[in-house]
Amino acid sequence: MGKFSRRDFLKGSAALGALVGVGTGVGSSFKKTKKVSAAGNTKQVFSACPRNCYDTCSIVTTVGDGTIKFITGNKNCTYTNGRLCVKGYTYPNYVYSPDRVKYPMKQEGRGTGKWTRITWDEAFEMIANKIFEIKKEYGSTLPIALNKYSGTFNTLSYGIEGTLSSIGYTTRAQGTPCWPAGIDSQTFDFGTIVNSDPEAMIHSKYILVWGANPAWNSVHSMNILQKAKENGAKVVVIDPILTDTAANADEYIEIKTSTDGALALGMAKYILDHNLHDMDWMRKNSVGYQEYLNYLNNNITLEWASEKTGIPVEVIERLAREYAAAKPACIWIGYGMQRHTNGGAAVRSIDALAAMSGNVGVLGGGANYAQLDSWLVNYSAMAMSPPEGSGGGADRMININNFPAQVLDLNSGDPNKIPIKMLWVAGRNPIAQDPETSVSYKAFDSIDFVVTADLWFNETVAQSDLVLPISSIFETWGVHASYWHYWLHINEPAIDPLYETKCDVEIAMGLSKKMNEMEPGSCTYPTDRTMEEWAAMEISQDFLNSKGMTSYKDLLKTGTAKVEGYDAAWADGVFRTPSGKYEFLSEKCASFGHHALPVYVEAKEVPTDRPIRLLTPHWKYGLHSQFQNLSWMQSVHNEPFVEIHPELAQKKGIADGDMVKVHNHIGFVELRAKHTLTVPKDAVVIYEAWYKDQKFNVNYLVEATPADMGSCATGQAGLAFHDQFVNIDKL
Amino acid sequence: MGMKNLQRYYILYLFLQKFYAGELNRLDFETWENLIQSLQQDCMDEENETIWQGLRRFVESTSEQQEQLEFAFNSLFVGPGKLLAPPYESAYLNENRVLMQQETLSVRKFYEQAGLELICKNHEPDDHIAFELEFVCYLLGQYLQTKEKEMIQMYHTFLKTHLFRWAGVHCEAIREHSDHPICLGIADLLDGLIQNGQTEETMKEGNQNG
Description:
The structure holds two protein chains of two kinds. By secondary structure, chain A is an alpha/beta fold. Chain A is 29% helix and 18% strand. In chain A, helix 18 links the parallel strand 17 and strand 18. Chain B has a single domain (3-209), classed as TorD-like (Orthogonal Bundle). Chains A and B meet through helix 1, strand 1 and strand 6 of A and helix 1, helix 2, helix 5, helix 7 and strand 1 of B.
């Protein structure tokens, strides 16, 4: 466009000179081309959904004109069988929403909305300067904290942890808000979490879905449950809420919240009394069974179990009889039921029920909670060493489930405590998702410098100094495993990264390059690998060997491959406990301050001044703070509501559709009431989600109450999300 | 249409292009004032009142307001929050408010038919207003320079089938979400150009009919 630059035709213009002096010239965004795009020139690549979800779908992405045309499920994966879910199908809208975070930007005053665009180089320099400043002042990088969790489960996203490891010893938000109590239970009982391949549920004759709602949160499992039903299985759902899964089951058992352990023990007592238990299996495979059976004999009655659970004695008897008689019978233990102050104990009681009835190690049986055995990955983006001579000695762990309060404690001015001066947030929206929202805001205010890497502008980004734009999974490489099914997926980039987005590992490499330019040897993160090389490094040799593959390229042919050998978890009878057997009696459990046996632990007492339980389960069209922010989802539903039983509503004078205030000693929310018979009479339900552009956040009502277990396997206790109590009043 | 009109439009489109490319955000106030003064000078023959309203808003903007321009600009057009007045054609014309669909690709095709493609193709949506305005300047500039009829035809067609189809709604969004005088002035300028375009179209039709 050179000849054009003289602009002889505008000799008389006064403004031209001024305008030409500004920025680049006309035509400089374009280059000459001879081709004209033709329709129909498409290719297909395999992608994978990185969300924190049972189903972790392999995706086939059709690409044309360098853009995503269509996505669907990968038929090579028999678990999802060529279909996605309602959330997954929104991905093209997600990638191409005009509202994505597009460029690195800095905010003049957190929460002011005064954002300016900066280059990546400037962003890296700002971060590097802050790191050097902290190192100089404190002699270590311990005042730098990372708060990251499951916003992306691409295994390459562990490069976020790697980023922090590569600059020195830092402070980490440790643990998980999701499932830790149950992990500990199964760690004490079995040695670790290993569920049977969910596809093997079709061999089951009786399926107890206990506190899980796959109709909303694991839709592909519903297909398996349906097949099992067609094969003659009975599906029973045990839940305080009449979920969509319950509505599709053969039977729904309404249980009083947080009394699941009592039901399991009551059923076991009936099975023992009627000699339906599997003594041979217990003798051969377990330790402590006699003590457990004694406990049942001496401490448990069906009347007691009925009183605790609110389930009639005859129903518990029938349930126990059916469960013990149907061989094999399987239990799916959900995560909701362990988010209690007695949740870990409850899972242990359920494990024991499965074990004593001879349903462990059996095809179509099991006490199925979760697994990590299929994660045959090298975590190569994560494993970084600190630079030589790093101060601090080791990373400092603080509890992810009480992060804001712990930050405030460290930042209280106590000279004996190393404060948190800088926070790196990635793969997470803690202000939306953490309990005690008002404390979260205070904690953020106490930190000098906050960097958040995200695809979306959310509450956490709003409280940051710097936002880094993250690429979607369609714009980078990935390796993905599930914590439920056994398929391992590879994710190939479908399109170029839009705007100036980068993936977490690219950010790590960029920061490393900048830091080492400024201070050689200050960051150990390698900078010379392509994302494809990182992905290739991620897949373990064990996995390749087991599939007869020679390289990751073989996996690119199908997009997915299944880790075999888990049709019936623990079929080999080799348990990963200290004794090598199933442990009804666990010394390890006792060493963490719990009872060694799977005894009943009383539910948290209902406070007299806040008698209504608040349940905050997942919403069907969102996943934590993800998806609900999209226009498509908002067009289906864009207003939070509280579900209330008509009987409770009548007592409170609340009509269907009334605006109400739900409140307790730490906060309140105002929203519309919806009458429904599906919720308990002594509880209300508000679904957890992030409603973009709205101030609503249910976590203003949720206290950081620890669950009973979690600290053995995950370092920190879980969160008793469902042991929250409130009042409700009409506005 | 008179050459003088087209020359003036060229300047106005160029000014808008610079604005939407973010290149006026960090000007010092003196440069800004000089620019606006000379822009006014170039517009002496302009009869459209909306364009003049926009120019007056620029003149009246204070140095404090000019300093705040980048924040206002980003909240409307860049982010990181939800874009209050997205600068993309497809954000208005796509029924799901989704970018990079057929609406964006038809803009891409138009560029290609003029022998051009974006250097940042597939990294930035082709239908960002700064690219559309740059393309308009290119066509108009080519015509003014070479008098090739094809260029002026493409210029009119592009405005009619693309920029003018959505820029009006975009201006409404600016007015709804911003009280920054410079951003409001930009909406006036764009609207004025659309009005002029419609008037000229009507006159052309009238001539043809007559």
